[in-house]
Amino acid sequence: MMTRQSPFKRSHRTYALVLALLVVLALIPPHRAQAQTYNANTDWFMQGKFGLFVQWLYGGGDITGDWNTLVDNFDVDYFAKQVSETGAKYVIFTLGQNSGYFASPNATYDSLVGRTASTSKMSTRDLPADLYDALNPYGIKLMLYLPARSPSDDPDAVAALGDPTPIYDHLAPQAFQAKWESVVQEWSDRYGSKVAGWWFDGTYNNGAMYGKPDISQAYTDYTAAHNFQTFAAAAKHGNADAIVSFDPGLSVEAPMTTYADYITGEQNLLQYVPSQYNAAPYSRWIGGVQWSETAYQGYDWARNGMKYTTLDLTNYFSTVTNQSGVISIGPNVSKEGHINAPQYAQLVNMHNAIAGVGPGVTVVEDNDAGIAYSGTWLTSVPSGTGYSGNNGHFTTTAGSYSEYTFNGTNVVWSGVKGPDHGTADVYIDGALDNSVDSVRSPSLRQYGDLLQGRSDERPAYDQDRRQERQKQRFDGQLRGSGPLQHYDGDADGRRRLGQRIHLRRHMAEQHPFGHRLLEQHGPLHDDRRKLCAIYV
């Protein structure tokens, strides 16, 4: 015979069941990744050999105006095209750094730091999602960079997240780690397999070198609720095949943890190779973790110039990859998503030299012997302004001109933008091709192309000599200290012998104070061209 429970008893049992469930849930530890040495998920990384490490808007100094406008203006299609031409097989891109601005929405972060839609420092545009869409057709994988700590230049966020200051004088508390893992996991879940890996900065174990604590100890207690194991699990939550790494500082000697899949290898010096850290036959693995190295291409992160010659870069690249190591090179990428022109040229040259398809892109300095200057020209070496070759040419005298003769299909000039400059009329074969306003360019760093022609305006080149003229409507000065580049290799969108010219909009990287005069691009044929710049 069934007996009916009283409502009180049923309610009491329900309450007890809920209470027991809550207790059980409270005892369940955070999601944990399994340590996996010799991880086959890094095979694509090793086989790809090298990628680009983009510290976009590094340090926050370039963050001016509206954040959403900056992010919206990043040209992912142009960037992806350039990356493909360098031969890079992956891109590591900064989601955000110490500024507190991030190039993607994250509701978890905004909730934790108490920000609304009007006060958020998260962009409306999901830039990584758009980067994936642009890179994927080229077979280029996307990886993301994040600090392991709160953004130190955003004190409100640091306080809200419970990260002690100065950040890198203190270990990351458990409560902070829990919050940061939840932020990382939201991005991981959203991107899923679109993000192939993560590069986490700021878990340094070399603090003793600077009189600071070893802050990596905050992550190496595997009896605690949060550590490298749970951090890696949060990053892999949306994609179990993603590869992760934690940066120890300037070191390529050993992995931080076996919960990392590859070594970040930040050294900024192209002098270490895998064989220095293991025995013959020089395995790709260091402590069961894939060897890799990270270094900037210029004189610092997100800076112009070239720290290494193309020959040195190519030789080092060959040595490392022949030992199954991986290199992540950091060129300077503008706010608009354009790789610095001379650095881009160097990467293309390196790729072509290794692939045996050369000669690629030739960069010519403004003081190259092949450039003939006539009239009154001055040179300047402003301190700290980033002139490549530590030199720049300029004129304020009407009638002065410069000439350069070369083989090639395309020339790109990067000059200097300034309020006292003028407008350059670009003539190709005697016909006006383009006008470049070096006063009111919409971009600080790019302002135009010098191109050989448009397919709907003139026939294919079939003469022995070509001439380009660049005339200056003089209302100030014109500085010829940025790069003109010409292509030496044949590629789609560029001229082929016997065919009509197709316009390829190649916005040259133009530095605030100039950089190089010439970069030349050309096919493997004997067309001779003459570039003549006349200032009137």
Strand order of the largest sheet: 5-4-3-2-1-9-8
Largest sheet: 7 strands, parallel
CATH architecture type of the largest domain: Alpha-Beta Barrel
N→C terminal distance: 111 Å
The helix-and-strand class reads: alpha/beta
Helix amount = 10-25%
Describe what this molecule looks like in 3D.
The protein is α/β, with parallel strands linked by helices and 536 residues long. The protein has 2 domains: 306 residues, TIM Barrel (Alpha-Beta Barrel); 174 residues, no CATH class. 23% of the residues lie in helices and 20% in strands. The chain is built from 11 helices and 22 strands. The strands form 5 sheets. It has a 7-stranded parallel beta sheet with strand order 5-4-3-2-1-9-8. A 6-stranded mixed beta sheet has the order 11-14-22-18-16-17, with no helix packed on it. α10 links the parallel β8 and β9. α5 packs antiparallel against α8 and α10 packs across α11. It is globular and about 75 Å long. The N terminus and C terminus are likely disordered. GO terms for molecular function: alpha-L-fucosidase activity. InterPro entries: GH (IPR017853), Glyco_hydro_29_N (IPR057739). Keywords: Signal. This is Alpha-L-fucosidase.
In a few lines, what is going on in this structure?
One of its GO terms (biological process) is carbohydrate metabolic process. Helices cover 23% and strands 20% of the residues.
